[in-house]
């Protein structure tokens, strides 16, 4: 349990507070456990995509699987569904 705070007591300076803190939390103190990252900004920026970025020079490498005989393409949502999802002529159950 922490000790109660006396809100009427005069405030102490930052240097006085620094002496009361453990070595890991002191201002300007370095700890052996502190992590440092050696990341090049250019390398880190390559992994991020900005919205609205020009991707015209990018190539898509997605395998295209032809539609099977037991599948159909919905006329409203244009998704390929199994024939068990057909609600009517070229309309899936989700769009009906």
Automatic annotation (TrEMBL):
Pfam families: DUF4193
Provenance organism: Planosporangium flavigriseum
Region (Disordered): 1-32
Protein's name in the database: DUF4193 domain-containing protein
Lineage: Bacteria, Bacillati, Actinomycetota, Actinomycetes, Micromonosporales
